[in-house]
Specification:
Number of strands: 0
Distance between the termini: 24 Å
Largest sheet: none
CATH class: Mainly Alpha
Number of domains: 1
Radius of gyration: 13 Å
Strand content: under 5%
Order of helices and strands: HHHHHHH
CATH architecture: Alpha Horseshoe
CATH topology: Serine Threonine Protein Phosphatase 5, Tetratricopeptide repeat
Length: 112
């Protein structure tokens, strides 16, 4: 997504707010299984990452299984290499992203 590459938080917010109710942020991934979180962490785009997290919290807040939805989302793995967003944040040395992911339930013991 070009908005992630360009670190355009406002454009990301607008796009995610325009999603129909039946499409979740956790459903958005490319053919390789990369979610928006994977893309933002791999590209080390902090503003984009923060906006994606905020949009997800806003979309799912108040749902009965909010914590499980978010935990499952942050632990999704890519198809080919089984990388999680936490793997990418760690690879990039971005401790701020890694801590946010851990706070949201990322599995520190996950393997690729």
């Amino acid at each position: 997504m070009k908005y992630i590459t360009n670190n355009e938080a406002k454009s990301i917010e607008n796009e995610l707010n325009a999603l129909p109710d039946n499409i979740g942020i956790d459903d958005l991934k490319n053919n390789d299984g990369l979610t928006l979180l994977h893309m933002a962490t791999f590209k080390n785009q902090q503003k984009a990452f923060n906006q994606i997290i905020l949009s997800a919290k806003t979309k799912y807040e108040g749902k009965r299984n909010f914590k499980n939805i978010i935990r499952n989302w942050v632990n999704q793995k890519t198809h080919k290499d089984s990388f999680s967003a936490l793997h990418y944040a760690s690879y990039r040395g971005n401790t701020e992203m890694a801590q946010v992911l851990l706070d949201l339930g990322a599995d520190i013991k996950t393997k690729n």
